[in-house]
Design goal:
Helices cover 48% and strands 18% of the residues. It is of the alpha+beta class. The chain has a 3-stranded antiparallel sheet, with no helix packed on it. Helix 1 runs antiparallel to helix 2 and helix 2 crosses helix 3.
Length: 149
């Protein structure tokens, strides 16, 4: 039988190590925010701030945790975080990386109040009409071990 408590601690330790790697040159509040968001999303399996705050199991009121996360989301992250993340990703891909790129569109023909709704070509229809929607690009890189990142 698996020891699930040990598995949880190992997962949390890996999340903490990963967040330290990408936020090593950031100040302490930003580093804590990044670790909290990564851990909260992975534990709650949700992106709602209330779910993330609940997953963090902090002793303060849940509303205070939501406010703290929300305030940090309204601030721009330091540029070193993006650089560290890209360097970490490129290191795991190796010398000759393989990228798979999938460009597609998400059609929202009945959408009225979506944020940044654009015009895209609906290739699934016979007439290939232009509809309201979003452009969507997904990029997958294969690591040296042939695992998707």
């Amino acid at each position: 039988m698996d020891n699930f408590t040990t598995n949880n601690y190992e997962m949390k330790r890996e999340i903490i190590n990963f967040s330290k790697k990408i936020s090593d040159s950031s100040d302490k509040p930003e580093s804590k925010f990044i670790m909290d968001m990564i851990y909260g999303i992975s534990k709650s399996k949700d992106i709602l701030l209330s779910s993330i705050a609940g997953a963090l199991d902090e002793k303060t009121k849940k509303a205070y945790v939501i406010d703290r996360l929300s305030n940090n989301l309204s601030n721009d992250l330091s540029s070193s975080i993006d650089e560290n993340y890209c360097n970490l990703a490129m290191d795991s891909l190796g010398k000759n990386p393989i990228f798979l790129i999938d460009e597609s569109d998400i059609i929202k023909p009945l959408g009225e109040k979506f944020e940044d709704l654009g015009i895209v070509r609906d290739v699934s229809s016979r007439n290939k009409n232009y509809e309201k929607g979003y452009h969507h690009t997904e990029i997958v890189g294969l690591t040296q071990n042939k695992k998707q990142q």
